[in-house]
Amino acid sequence: MPLVRYRKVVILGYRSVGKTSLAHQFIDGEFLECYDPTVESTYNKMLMLGKDEFHLQLVDTAGQDEYTILPHSFTIGIHGYVLVYSVTSLKSFQVVKSLHSKLYESRGKTSRQVKTDEGRKLADSWGAVFLESSAKENQMTQGVFTRIIEEIDRVDNSYGEQRGCILM
């Protein structure tokens, strides 16, 4: 039995560039001749890729411009984005660049404000262990808790020394 994976993808772009047409062609295999501005529509489709089955939720959005504030719902729980522009519209190409920047910033790629060395220096000044982790990226999540247990055990087994709480 194939593994079913769920994926949510958002289609973004300037108004009337073909976002809905692209979605309909993919979902229904047909091209819509008439233009009807989209508010927001969601489509579902199952597809097989290799041995895996994917349940795709495709969110077709209303047209954006460079001043559009992207709703939080367009950044939380989203696995991917399709940015659409029209080859006949320079404005739509510029909007795609702006959307890419906004998405990149909202995903936390440029938000680091504390350097690793600064965190390490602070921990050293406290006499604490320093580990940097990210729950989102699953980096060192096991290591944080493994290390605190090891440190507690190290202190508990230090006979003749004062016992205290471990800071990390």
From TrEMBL:
The keyword Magnesium does not apply. The lineage of its organism: Eukaryota, Metazoa, Chordata, Craniata, Vertebrata. One of its GO terms (biological process) is TOR signaling. This is RHEB like 1. The gene is RHEBL1. GO terms for cellular component: cytoplasm; membrane. One of its GO terms (molecular function) is GTPase activity. It comes from Podarcis muralis. Pfam families: Ras (PF00071). Keywords: GTP-binding, Nucleotide-binding.
